Fold these 2 entries.
Entry 1:
Amino acid sequence: MGTIEAPHRAKADRPAATQAAADQPMYASRVKVYPKRVFGKVRSVKWAVLIVCLVLYYVLPWLRWDRGEGVPDQAVLVDISNARIFFFWIELWPQEIYFLAGGLILGAFALFAVSSLFGRLWCGFTCPQTVWTDLFMWVERWIQGDRNARMKLDQGPKDANYWTRKALTHGVWVLIAAATGGAWVMYFNDAPTVTWAILTGGASLEVYFFFALFAGFTYLLAGWAREQVCTYMCPWPRFQAAMLDENSLVVTYRDWRGEPRGKLKGEGHGDCVDCFACVHVCPTGIDIRDGQQLECIGCGLCVDACDSVMAKLGKPKGLVAFETLKNLSASAAATAAIRPGPERQKAGMAARHMPRFIRPRTIMYAGALTLVSVVMLGAFLLRSTLDVTVIRDRAPLFVRLSDGGIRNAYTVKIVNKTREEAPLALVLSAPEGFRMVVQDVEADAQGRPLLPRRADGIAQYRVLVSVPGGRRLAESTPVTFRLLDPAGRAVASTSSTFAGPRP
Amino acid sequence: MPTKIEKDSLTGTDTTGHEWDGLKELNTPLPKWWLYTFYATIVFAVVWMVIYPSIPGWKGTSGWVAREAVVADVAAAQARNAPMMARLREATPAQIAADPEMRAFATAGGRVAFANNCAGCHGAGGQGAIGGFPSLADDEWIWGGSLEAIQHTIRHGIRANESDDQRQSMMPRFGADALLTRAQIDDVAEHVLSFTSRATDQAAATRGVALYAEQCASCHGERGEGNREFGAPRLADQVWLYGGSKRDIVAMIGNPRAGVMPSWQGRLDPAITNMLTLYVHSLGGGE
Ligand code: SF4
Ligand code: SF4
């Protein structure tokens, strides 16, 4: 395997990534990464997160939620043509889209808070790019073998074996990608119906377009682009540095303990045996021993890799670890004068402190998070399911009647977010003598007009209000429309004005 | 400006030969994918220009015309509405009013048809205007405000001589044709004003009683209540087609004016005149 060089950044003789970059041209062509299989605690957590995320994504649209006759029974559905978002028991109208905005703000603050505490937890564990890439790598490993076998395959002859394995890998990738694109459109369409339609060629052009778009990009980003998405395309690594500080947990190489690195047998060496295990498992192909790097997604696989090497050597684990930069320099300072060996390791570990989780930065993020949550929750609990709006006619502003009276016309809309259809009585609060007529509706026993509601919709009525002649009238008189339920309680109200001629 | 093209040692790329204060510009070639995408867009544009009407005078090989797309859209919309329009054509206004689905369709479509055909005279909301354009939103009707009466007026028009069933009325020209003297007209006008308690000259109003009974009451009614049969407007109210001041009334008696409304049957689909009927009826004055 001597022909394979480590990835271009992984030159062991470079003390820091910053210097490594100095003599490089602006453009570097991609060096293909062959991540090696790894076992360990972090890997197990990563598998668990991956399974939860994928199961959620693929299964959610299939969950049913009974909402009654004539309403979609899909638990999570964005119904574009009917302008509704269904989420289990919640049903949102387009004018309530701010809940979605609130959710996104919540997500952003949660991300900031987590990043300032634990570094790139999002990138390394839950980001779709990481999750799907991990899944695609698992397929690749399953069909083509581990790192060495894959490299041999790529360099070997392009024979039947090569093409079979490649075709098989890409075939499975395409299937996964298709499932991913398919699941995406299911969030916007009834899942069983749209699946059947896609399979039988009966789906609409839009459905096929978005299906192909998401399937295509899943295949492209998880199969081909991989770490390049994180390194070159994603904006998050660029500005996450603003959330991290020396108290954040990041994946680090404890150089105070590992250096000078070297083969096991030599004298005066640190604990790093320069075996490249950490480099070989890295999905972005970097060397964590070069220090903090933009490319590192914080997946922690190098932690697992190094830990198993240390275990084999009978040395304490944690040469590569989730550690704060503050502790790293504290350990380095405490061990500066100590020769390599177990003493140095002990002294360095003793100099560490519990990471400070409560800091102005985290308090602020937690505060913002709490504030937004409370506001959102309040808005949600106080959200009205019945609204009435009134629009007064502008042309004409008013009509003069034969007895000299004045009449205004209004459009009353009852916005009903429930399935309730029972009519509501409309009453007018206005000065004495104002009379109200609602066109095309019945009246209740007290002679009040009864306005039927539309289940989950808007019912619209034309309302005429008139004042008899011979009465002094201001140019504009405030009036209030109220909707009463059968028990006589006002369930919604809105105010408007009654326009008259200039006195 | 020196134009010596050199080879850059680090990248192996030529410079452009431009130099500013010691800064040299690399002539880095465009990425292949970018270049080919660019060429592809040029090819695409040329093909597009050939197929579609892209240059004034060039019709394109496909024969595509924007106008036809609109025509097709309109035809599709008409086809979609055809069953409803057929029902509206056959139904009487009363039947339409009784059916919520037809009624909703008719009022919505009637609003558009009104804006296209009627608003020019009657105003955007049917408010009319002093000077011969009756308001359709108030509670005063010259020819009647029931669904049937409105439908009849829309279909046959007023004094347009386009339909045998048109609304027809003619007030004599009392002044111009010397049927009454100037003083008599004044007296009649005072009497008309007294219907709404606005007479300023009681003696003149009293003198006008007999003249009114003789000349006007047969059409406008004993107490100015009007008569829709002849299209004689009510005089005992506050709605005046040509103004309600004494001057306006004197002018009307002396040399009456009479508006004209076209007959819309033959001009508009009967379904549309029915929709207009429903819409006008809903403006507020419907009886
Ligand atoms: S350096 Fe370690 S933590 Fe960073 S991406 Fe590579 S394996 Fe993951
Ligand atoms: S895995 Fe550990 S011992 Fe091996 S090279 Fe990386 S840091 Fe050194």
Entry 2:
Amino acid sequence: MSRVANSGWGRPKTPEQVEERIVVGQDGTVWARSGKVEYGQDIRAGFARIVAREMELPVARVQVELGETDRVPWDMGTYGSMSTATDGASLRAAAAYAMALLKERASVRFSVPVPDLAVQDGRIAASDGRSVCYEQLVESGPLEGTVPSGAALEFASGAIDGGSFRVEAADIVTGRTRFPHDVRVPGMLRGHVQHPPVAGMHLDSFDSQTPYAQEGVVQVVHQGDFIGVLARRREQAVSAAQALDPHWSAAPSNPAEPLDVTLHDDPDISQELAAAAEHLTSTYHVPHIAHASILPSAAVADVRPDGADLYVATQRPFGLRDEAAAIVGLRPEQVHVHPQHMSGMYGGGGWDQAALDAVRLSHAGQCPVLVEWTRAEEFALSAHRPVLDAQIAAGLSEDGQIVAWQYHCRTNPHIYGTAAVPPQAVAMTSGRNAIPPYALAHAEILLHVEPGDIRTSAFRSLAAAPNVFVIESFMDELAAMSGQDPIAFRLRHTDDPRLKTVLELVRERSGWNRSPREAGHGMGVACAVYHGTYIAEVARVFVAADGTPHLEQVYAAVDAGRLVHPDGARNQIEGGVQQAASWTLLEETRVEAGRVVTTNWKTYPIATFPDAPEGIDVAFVASDKPSTGIGEPGSVPVAAAVANAVFAASGARVRQLPLRPAFIQKARAQA
Amino acid sequence: MRYRLDVNGEMREADVPASTTLLDVLREDFGLTGSHLGCGHGACGACYVLVDSEPAASCTMSVEEAEGRHIVTVEGLAPAGSLHPVQQAFVDGDAMQCGACTTGMVISTVSLLMKNPHPAEGEILDAMSPHLCRCGAYGRVVKAVQSVRGVAL
Ligand code: FES
Ligand code: FES
């Protein structure tokens, strides 16, 4: 595989200091600090609730600081629906420890043993009525110490109370929220860079004079293959960058360095397949899709000789800090990253190219610079979801049990960076959810990863959504071939009670067995276990005579452990379903000669209001198990559920996304 | 060129080239960054403002065209520190995730409800159809709009 990595991959987790996580302010505000960032998943409210619960405070007393590199503990980045599961757990431990320290101090102050103290609303009280608030307990000095491991801590139990809404909501609806595009720094210029259409091309020539003839242009910046302009206004910078009229040398031919990873080996697989009573083999294809954030990338950089401030929307503040420092020759701690509100990036926010543009231009121009990419640049230059091509085969016993399973998939890298990635990391990213959640007597699962024809990157759930589309469509094919009910077929292949529960719950909610079959209508099911979250979905579709599919309703049953923020979790699942419905029915990045040609909303349509299903029904399984992620799982089973519903509605088995009417008509004709 | 614009009930001046868009004037010259530049060609709804009470893409309207019209941006819907009933409905229903699309949707909702206080679901979808939401908040937005039906605006 080519050079793909994540700086900080596998960094060991050292014990944390409570003072890095939890600070009790003089006014009684409790500051909770995390290196994670907010990008629509509402982790700020989730973290506030976790800390409030442990410290027995009203949620409003907790202030969450996210991603400010000078103030929060180091973090590898906000990926993989892991914020609540990992950083939430760290914050919970730090908060529990902070509470223990506060109680110790109160115990000394009142000469009362800790077990005899009561805590409520930010005060610790002795039974004789004396009480003290947290801020008084830190007058003698801040809380300090190494957070013990979870086993040594006492946690608050029970549900986390609701009531608080998205912290940023009022700012969002009034337009006060600051995205990087909205940051204004005194003396700031606007910058725009001309990037080569294909990464790695060299600059042959460009026009360094014409831009200066344009109004507002301050400086043309040229360093090696990097060219850009500084101007007074945004539109002037865009137009001057065009006037640079660069000529690029032919794209370098990057020798492909493919990587093969065996996810599950079975030396007997060929025999077992051959010996099975019934067989099926299919091939599937999933195209590139675009993250298609509503706001194109933007960033402000203010690079000075002795330090730099970056106002950015990034999923990895520390990675960006280190990269920026290296470019301008500063030490990492001289670079201060200030995360701004982020237009949803869905995993694509680790590329940070606009931020690096701004860093270079600010360094060259010695002034603060705001860079805003155009919509076309956002589509053309950012990384896209990898392609997946899969060949899948299975053998069934006479009574319809899977006895052999073979899955060979080819895809592209889902992570990027500068150093080599260990094969386990590839298995966890490009191989995510390639192993089905079923009991299979024999299985061979092989992964082949090679660089794509365009740059590829992580996208919500990484390879899980493409893999689950293939696996769960194929499960449906096997059920149909052997005349079994698709839900019953899945249930007979798992012993996992949590997977069974979500399948049974979605069967119940969707009226799976009860709804009469109407011509053109159908229901499809799919399920997945994604990073510890169990999810089953049923889609109901109508397929028109001309092959146009209409998604009418989606039912999701989810077990994500203990819910920290139930309405936020519901919103995330709904959004994941809606976005994945758009991928499934409409989206495909088209590439010609190594260049993305779908560079606007006409050639790259996404779902709009009229395309949205009438309803997305989300049911959570009540649980006291550890919290798992909810940002990604909702999106994972959607494509298969919809494709299976299309099959139920029309008899058309479509093994390629998006589910275009033409593909449906063709498959229907073959059925 | 000097232009005088009526924005949020105030007359404001901008000295910009004639080709400048209303959106750039709002964002760059007046500091009203609640209208967002999502596409610049009228295809996403992120930049919508009210022009004489009608929702319009400010990214494709020139400053010249905007002169003499009554412009309201999302910042001008309610006095500072308070929320317009439509804004309140979006907050109450958590009808957003990242919020990049939200201000434009609020604008279109206000205009719809001014003209038609009891829109049917189809009319809501029609009115909102210029707006893209990548986070997939469509269902919640429709519910938020329905929740303000009939409220005097
Ligand atoms: S920015 Fe105006 S419609 Fe997209
Ligand atoms: S809330 Fe993110 S684009 Fe709509």
